[in-house]
Amino acid sequence: MPSATQSQKPNSAGKLFEFQSQLPKLPVPALGETLPKYLSTVEPLLSKEEFARTKKIVEEFGQSAQAQELQRRLEARAAEPGRANWLEEWWNDLSYMGYRDPVTPYVSYFYTYKDDKLRRKPTQRAAAIVRAAWAFRAQVASGELAPEMARTTPLCSHSYNYMFNATRIPKKPSDYEATYDLGANQHITVARNNQFFTLELVHDGQLLSAAEIESQLDRIVERADSSAAVPVGVLTSDNRDMWADNYQLLAQASPQNAQTLEKLQSSAFLLCLDNTKPVTREECHRTYWHGDGANR
């Protein structure tokens, strides 16, 4: 059984990150590669006249001093000590954090498990998944997890730093990530009937058993289903600028609100206990992907 106590961040000295220093840096393509690729990308989108004009502009740009200077700056950025990826910050901002459409469904994705023939009760199945996820979290935290490989080539493990106890905070003009101490935050958030509960998984230094987690989830379901609540969670599915405004209103409405948001954000992960009963494949997929938008 993995230890309930875990370090603040995944152990960079463990097996998970043992190849990080050996991974190649993202290269800066030569200008002679970038410009033809740009032209081949825009060609299907332009008329013949527009493409001819674009091609002329690109060719002139390629011969300019400005192009040479910009290429030099990119290469200098890539060569900076400690910078493994010259594109990462820009990519994350333009493609994700600065992207203003709702995260769900425009950025999020889903996957599903095969049907569990042994655990037919929803909270029993959820408890088993929580326990399994917690064991995986322990391997990430200790660095004992083996890095992913493409045959014999190790892949970057950097994203594991944001797998647990991490969140995306809405902000204008670009969101930002927040990570929390894995050892100090050993709770999960449970959503049920548009209500959110935090569940501590460690008691007196011991991880709760599957039966104990199931019992706590049963109590959450009973309590949530016996009352109605304003579906605040639906605000997270809004345009990011609008969610950023409402997030500030929620946080500033009262000190208790701010503390509650911090508690939710610092949890290891979110468990959604939906009360729907999808039957068809499409119904299942829509439930996995976004649900009703409120119990999220």
Verbal overview:
With 296 residues, the protein is mostly helical. It is 43% helix and 10% strand. It is built from ten helices and nine strands. The protein has helices at residues 31-42, 48-62, 65-78, 88-97, 103-106, 122-142, 210-225, 240-253, 255-265, 281-289; strands at residues 149-150, 153-154, 166-169, 176-179, 187-192, 195-200, 202-203, 206-207, 270-272. Strands 6-5-9 form a three-stranded mixed beta sheet, with helices on one face. A two-stranded antiparallel ribbon has the order 1-2. A two-stranded antiparallel sheet has the order 3-4. β5 (187-192) and β6 form a beta hairpin. α6 packs across α7. The protein is globular, with a radius of gyration of 24 Å.
Q: Quick gist of this model?
A:
This protein has 296 residues and is mainly alpha-helical.
Highlighted features:
296 residues; mainly alpha; disordered N terminus; single chain; two-stranded antiparallel sheet; three-stranded mixed sheet
Principal-axis shape: globular
**What percentage of the residues does DSSP assign to strands (E)?**
5-15%
What's the end-to-end separation, in Å? 30 Å
> How can the largest sheet be summarized?
3 strands, mixed
What layout of secondary structure does this protein have?
Blueprint (H helix, E strand, L loop, with lengths): L30 H12 L5 H15 L2 H14 L9 H10 L5 H4 L15 H21 L6 E2 L2 E2 L11 E4 L6 E4 L7 E6 L2 E6 L1 E2 L2 E2 L2 H16 L14 H14 L1 H11 L4 E3 L8 H9 L7
Parallel strand pairs: 5-9
Antiparallel strand pairs: 1-2, 3-4, 5-6, 7-8
Helix pairs in contact: 1-2, 6-7, 8-9
